[in-house]
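Quick one - first record:
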Amino acid sequence: MFDIRAKQIQKAYSNALRLGFNNNSKLVFLSDVHRGIDDNADNFSQNQHIYFNALQKYYDNGYTLFELGDGDELWKNKRISDIKEVYVNIFWMLGKFYAHNRYYMIYGNHDMEKRKQAWAAQNLQTFYDDRLNRDFPLFPDITPREAIVLQNEDTGREIFLLHGHQADLLNCELWRFARFLVRYLWRPLESLGIKDPTSSSKNKQKKEAVEKELMDFVQNKMIMIAGHTHRANFPDVCGSNDKQPLYFNDGSCVHPRCITAIEIVEGRISLVKWQVGTKPDGAMYICKKLLEGPCPIEDYFK
């Protein structure tokens, strides 16, 4: 019998938006950006230039972007308008993806407000450019999703996309209580260096519990790509006697000095890291490093 967490994952899968992809598709999966307001509690601000550069490269190279939840930090911050004002360049870049039908938004526990269509209509349609004193289109008519299922048009294989908080009782069913703790207790303490013990991204036992729930659900029947734990995962392509659950995690965009992402290009899946590199002459630049893969997706089903 399913427990409440397994039921939440199953519900997300059953209600997911279905999209097709093929071996010509170029897809990138990012999550846990946690865009804030560039204050002491904004964990994303240190990586904002790396992230913006990565978005530019993905846009220029024809990728479709899937944001797998917690794109905006709406637990520590009450108004997304404040976040859009700080990161207007990033929202401009995301708007370009969306204008070309290459951006899909999944909500997580830290941006759960996006699940309400009325909230999305009020807050995600436009952004205000203060220099020109007018609103510009951002995500007109967007519908943020709890989950998306990608189906290979040739093989029928499925890739299940979700944030992953569905496997975490405190951050799913009790998310309003968790938000209260973060906003009014842990946010001020975080500036003093005290970590939030309720967070699955900072608590080893919680990470492992969430990952086990997600792995138990997916097993080997489909590929899952999630976020939430901030811990990247890329299963090995193993023999039938040692097959790992097909659970991938794209990590986060708030790692110290880097962001991580999952890419699927021409039917092959990879885990990559974007970071600041240094040339021999001391010049700094932003580069992409391959961490795992690329591995043919079909190899995971053999």
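second record:
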Amino acid sequence: MRKSFTALLTISVLATGVLLSGCGKSTSGTKQTATIMEQADISSFDSTMITDVGALETVNNTQEGLYRMKNSTTVEPGLATSIVKPTQNGTVYTFKLRKNLKWSNGDALTANDFVFAWRRAVTPETKAADAYRFLPIKNAQAIENGKLAPSKLGIKALNKTTVQVTLAQATPYFKYLCASVPFLPQDQKVVNKYGKAYGTTSDKTVYSGPFVVKKWTTSSSRWDLTKNQSTGIRRTLNLIR
């Protein structure tokens, strides 16, 4: 079943014309509304647990990772300040995050949010469907096999705005992994608060990207995207078609 969501966008977001053909007439002079048909149902907004294509488009517009895809072959900085050149024979990546990053609930978004999310993904008890994507990272294989603690994963926060990742071996496609959904950060306080219910409704999720989701549950036939007032990230709505 094709479901729909409504995007409430400022005129500045629409300036490139990405959504002009789908937008209704402006009523306030500052906002427009577009109703867009989604390709599939959404089962979860927990980026560690997502297995369905229905969530990918919405997550792409509501969450931001270290990198994002500029097009099908090129990555560009997301929450990172630049595209990192690895050191130590291509095995160590040191990412600098933009300053004063915020989650949609106002919590500070720091390097520790990446450490928490990536460790959670490789923890066997989490049963993340895409845990295998982390295998290029040092110790991921042993952790997923239950032979090492998740704290041994090759990722650490050097400070609040610096994430350092060590790979098991040089992996040229690692930059693309950093732009994918399983590698998104997560707010540990919110994940711990909701436990298994995290990501099961729009109100039990926090957002790091340019939009936030409103009025969504796993049984919703429609939901809203509105501008994220907390993160300061400004992008046009990105539609995967």
